[in-house]
Specification:
The complex is a heterotrimer of chains A (333), B (291) and C (422). By secondary structure, chain B is an all-alpha fold. Chain B is built from eleven helices and two strands; from the N terminus they run ααααββααααααα. In chain C, the strands form two sheets. Chain C has a seven-stranded mixed beta sheet with strand order 7-6-8-9-10-11-12, with helices on both faces. In chain C, strand 9, helix 10 and strand 10 form a beta-alpha-beta unit. The chains are: A mainly alpha (333), B mainly alpha (291), C alpha/beta (422).
């Protein structure tokens, strides 16, 4: 545990510990609605961190990350619905499928030298391909959707992930914390340094003898696998999956909003981004309703304006600015 | 096995529609090829043009094909303003921030349109909207034919502009060699804004034509943006004939795929084509290899 | 101690401080009770209506909202005079948002929920409602699974996809019998989304059992986001089928029929076994004379029912410039769902979730808007008494043509050619 937290300034640790304490106690402090919002926030904090590994650490901009959520979710859900296999075992299959998909995309992209914007478009194409494909995949319900049998609200069955929102809350909180620790460990490891080298200047890294293909693939595999786990959570929490929703570009964009606004490439950026954006969205909804300005679409306009403002004023993201503000030096990376 | 007549009809429809989408992609190709900005608000700009055409038609009964030039002019101004005002600082910044900027703009545009025009689909019903020509065994959709013809004309005009006018050559110089252009004293910032404006004008013209063929709804933007990117990459970034060719190819692919397989899966084929192009010929079919 | 009436002493005793302390305590209490938020018995009923007011389904969502808008005045007229508050919120055609809004409405004190015109959202909201013990009366959602989950708090006053199809298909024979013309082949075109696939699956299962005089020669699925259906229509036309069966939503219905006109395809008729789209105001406005003569078999408002007249009058007052027939389907079901809520509350005499749910379960409302038997729910929460009618567009107005006792005109089949439209 000590090694994991190497390099984080003491003040930063204090803030993190405080946040964690609040989050752990949240179900006793918040009502159910707030708990639902917190689950959404943590979900995006988790997926944002997973995405950040591919982009922030290895420099590959993926705009189709929803494909891993979808593949993971459908794999675990299908196993549960058709064979009664519980989600913790389904998880293994889900991660395998997600990572395999990531491997294919990564292999195709890196072997053929597809990078930058072209890589981004490639990821979109794959996600769309999956969306339309699953629309026609009748074993998992096609576009009619895959419904998980819902039961058991009175007890929490953690083996089958059936139960109260509180259980789901702690599951996603654990996932988010685990992701954070993992990212931190990766960043400090040898792989992490190679990734940063590749991100800064791939050609130079290769010239130094770093097998860029291998390390980029690691980033893709880890990112894809982690995101598939989010998919499993999603499937068992919402209990239904529709290809049009799960694989859509809107979902992919939602995943990356957090890290980019929070600060891509930073450790805490995705978490800050998730809190900021979801909090913003809900607050805006409240505010507009109170003011009576809730014509459909108004909220999204304000949301877009805020996004615009943030990206213009702080293109590197909110976290670096926030860190300076509260006196935390950005850990030397 | 579908009859030859059916195949020809479907193919023709695909080609005609593809030409109009190609014009839209042309605007993107110009923008991306020169200014190197990933315009993720491209489809939304198109939607603005479509709504403009709908409003003008509704208020004054003016046929969109006649309003082509004024609508293109309005979009030009919009594009110029967007580039000079918002986007310029982002040109040298990493792609993901450009992406974020344009996504934010896209969200704003889509939802402002929703507030102003409401969610219902708006269309332009001209006197010839439901017409079709009989050419032998082929039934040619009149609106598609007119729109395609207009698309070719606009593309030709743009081609002439870039090839033979001074400004056009200056823009091409910027695209080819940014530093060199600066060195010879070209006002690059102005030229970039001009280019973005031109790209937007293309989109404006395409939108005015497209509204004859499909209905305008606020959520149309993202789908069109994606289509534009698929076409541009297939046809070749920075190549104008490439954009039109890409449009035709995608239109044809989707039409024939829809005919021979399940229509609901036809987009898979254009994405498949895109993936193949990205892997084996990333500069696109008519594109030049990036330096 | 002199006896004071309870309210007087309460008022005398409450200061700002104690009020704040009380509110804090109540808040803490509400926060610490994960489900069953303790509510005062017999308070005013607060109904939360969740609809897609923005996003892809915005048009229909806003149409449904009108049903909620006319409800308060109508309740007074039909005898539900207890205080009722109706709150309408937008779930933006997004399933996650639907779930969050449901949670929020319940946290804000809604005793019952209604909505949402979308099966995906209905599933999400149903889970929340069931967890919290808040009755959820669905206005429109066709996916059969929603009432197969063993929920105790979810009720649906709408047909399931299998019901839509079986009742719809049964009416097809009636059309042919009434007009004396029978087609031998049909081509089916359906939208490839949740609704479309549910209906297609129902057709696949039910059609073979119904002994209809025609066979379906081909089935063509199209992308819900398709803006251009020329390929699909070309394929359908090439089958030379006698009639076109459609499962559509709104925008695609418009594109589809327009394309048929352009491609000069004139089957004997366009008959839909229960989809939205062809009776919606926007279709009627856009298609004009070309939208006439299409037939939809669908649940509909009974033009001869007293409730329908009341609804029509109130609608005219609030929306003088809107045409009722294009909205009556959405309004009718939305209003009926709210009426179920009001009725249950009146009989239960309390706002306790379980009491309300039990009251809904014993609902029997004879005077309704839609054609069919009285509103009542079976053990699964499903209402099975909603009938379908044959609706034909005549003079750009959806008109009931069958069954005879609810009909306003006689059916016309086959339809006149495109060129012959007045």
């Amino acid at each position: 545990m000590g090694r994991l937290l190497d390099g984080v300034p003491r003040r930063g640790l204090a803030w993190l510990a405080a946040l964690l304490a609040v989050l752990l106690a949240a179900p006793w402090l918040a009502n159910d609605y707030l708990l639902t919002v917190l689950i959404i926030i943590l979900y995006f904090a988790y997926t944002g961190q997973a995405w950040n590994i591919m982009f922030g650490f290895a420099g590959q901009l993926s705009l189709g990350h929803a494909i891993y959520v979808g593949l993971g979710g459908y794999t675990a859900a299908a196993l549960f619905v058709h064979f009664g296999i519980g989600p913790w075992i389904g998880l293994v299959a889900a991660v395998a499928v997600g990572a395999a998909c990531g491997a294919i995309i990564g292999f195709l992209a890196f072997r053929f030298g597809v990078g930058g914007v072209y890589f981004a478009i490639l990821t979109i194409a794959f996600a769309e391909f999956a969306r339309i494909g699953f629309d026609h995949f009748s074993w998992v319900g096609g576009s009619g959707g895959l419904f998980l049998p819902v039961a058991n609200y009175s007890q929490s069955d953690i083996w089958n992930l059936r139960g109260k929102p509180i259980m789901f809350y702690y599951v996603i909180l654990t996932l988010t914390v685990a992701a954070f620790l993992l990212c931190h460990a990766l960043l400090r490891s040898r792989v992490g340094y190679y990734w940063q080298a590749i991100r800064e200047d791939e050609a130079a890294a290769r010239a130094l003898g770093i097998d860029t293909f291998r390390y980029k693939m690691y980033a893709v595999l880890i990112s894809a696998g982690m995101t598939s786990v989010a998919g499993v959570f999603f499937a068992f929490y919402y209990n239904n999956l529709f290809p049009e929703q799960v694989f859509s570009i809107a979902r992919s964009i939602e995943i990356i909003l957090g890290p980019i606004i929070g600060g891509a490439g930073t450790l805490v950026g995705p978490i800050v981004g998730a809190f900021l954006l979801t909090g913003l969205a809900e607050t805006m909804w409240e505010f507009l309703r109170a003011v009576g300005l809730d014509a459909p679409g108004t909220r999204q306009v304000f949301y877009g304006l805020v996004l615009l403002a943030i990206i213009i004023v702080q293109p590197a993201g909110v976290w670096p600015w926030l860190a300076r503000l509260i006196g935390l030096e950005k850990p030397r990376s | 096995m579908p009859s030859l007549e059916l195949v020809l009809n479907v193919a023709l429809g695909g080609i005609l529609a593809g030409l109009v989408y190609g014009l839209m992609a042309l605007g993107l190709s110009v923008i991306f090829g020169v200014v190197r900005v990933v315009n993720f608000a491209h489809g939304e700009m198109m939607t603005i043009a479509m709504y403009l055409a709908v409003t003008l038609f509704g208020a004054f009964g003016l046929d969109p094909l006649i309003m082509l030039v004024p609508i293109a002019a309005v979009l030009f101004a919009l594009g110029y303003a967007m580039q000079a005002g918002l986007i310029n600082p982002f040109i040298s910044r990493p792609e993901h921030t450009q992406f974020m900027l344009l996504v934010a703009i896209a969200i704003i545009i889509t939802n402002v349109l929703l507030i102003v025009f409401g969610p219902d689909a708006r269309s332009v019903q001209t006197s010839y909207s439901l017409d079709s020509f009989l050419v032998g065994p082929l039934i040619v959709d009149a609106t598609k034919a007119y729109a395609a013809a207009a698309a070719i004309l606009v593309a030709l005009a743009l081609f002439v502009f870039f090839r033979f006018t001074l400004v056009g050559k200056a823009i091409r110089a910027c695209a080819d060699n940014y530093v060199g252009a600066l060195v010879v004293g070209l006002d690059v910032k102005h030229l970039y804004a001009l280019t973005f404006g031109l790209g937007a004008a293309c989109v404006g013209a395409a939108g005015a034509m497209l509204v004859l063929v499909i209905d305008a709804t606020p959520p149309l933007g993202p789908a069109l943006t994606l289509l534009a990117f698929v076409i541009v990459i297939t046809g070749g970034l920075g190549s104008m004939p490439g954009a039109l060719l890409g449009g035709v190819m995608i239109g044809l692919t989707e039409a024939l795929a829809g005919l021979f397989f399940t229509p609901s899966a036809k987009s898979m084929f254009s994405f498949g084509l895109l993936v193949l192009v990205l892997l084996f010929r990333p500069q696109g079919i008519l594109g030049r290899k990036a330096s | 101690m002199t006896r004071k009436s309870p309210t007087k002493s309460a008022r005398a005793g409450v200061t700002r401080r104690s009020f704040a302390a009380g509110a804090g305590a109540a808040g803490l209490l509400a926060g610490t009770a994960p489900f069953n938020i303790v509510r005062a018995q017999g308070g005013p009923l607060k109904i939360g209506v969740i609809l897609p007011l923005s996003g892809v389904q915005a048009g229909i969502g806003q149409s449904c909202k009108r049903g909620a808008d006319i409800a308060p005045a109508l309740f007074k007229q039909i005898g539900y005079t207890q205080p009722i508050e109706i709150v309408v919120v937008d779930f933006e055609t997004n399933v996650d948002t639907a779930r969050a809004r449901a949670e929020r409405l319940i946290a804000d004190g809604c005793n019952m929920l209604s909505g949402p015109f979308d099966s995906g959202a209905a599933s999400a909201i149903a889970q929340v409602a069931e967890q919290k013990g808040v009755p959820f009366v669905i206005n429109i959602a066709a996916a059969p699974q929603i009432t197969e989950q063993g929920y105790k708090f979810v009720f649906r006053n709408f047909q399931t996809a299998p019901q839509i199809i079986s009742r719809g298909l049964a009416l097809f024979s009636d059309i042919f019998a009434a007009t004396g013309k029978t087609p031998s082949t049909a081509v089916l075109m359906h939208i490839n989304d949740t609704f479309g696939q549910a209906n297609k699956a129902a057709i696949d299962r039910i059609f073979p059992t119904m002994n209809l005089p025609f066979k379906i020669v081909e089935s063509i699925a199209y992308d819900p986001a398709a803006k251009d259906l020329s390929v699909e229509v070309s394929k359908a036309k090439a089958t030379n089928a006698d009639i076109l069966m459609t499962v559509t939503r709104l925008n695609d219905a418009i594109i589809l029929v327009r394309e048929m006109v352009k491609q000069r395809w004139e089957p004997m008729g366009i008959i839909s076994p229960g989809s939205p789209g062809m009776y919606e105001q926007q279709f009627l406005d856009t298609m004009g004379k070309y939208g006439d003569y299409v037939i939809t078999t669908v649940p509909w408002a009974n033009p001869k029912a007293e409730m329908t007249k009341l609804v029509a009058d109130e609608f005219k007052k609030l929306y003088p410039r809107d045409k009722l027939p294009g909205h009556i389907f959405n309004i009718g079901f939305t209003f009926e769902a709210l009426m179920v809520c009001a009725d249950a509350h009146k009989r239960a005499g309390s706002t306790n979730g379980t009491a309300l749910a039990d009251a809904v379960r014993t609902t029997k409302i004879e005077k309704r808007v839609m054609v069919g038997g009285p509103i009542e729910f079976d053990a699964k929460g499903q209402c099975n008494t909603i009938a379908s009618v044959c609706l034909q567009n005549r003079n750009q107005t959806p008109t009931v043509v069958l069954p005879k006792d609810a009909a306003e005109m006689t059916p016309v089949f086959p339809m006149p050619s495109w060129n012959q439209r007045g």
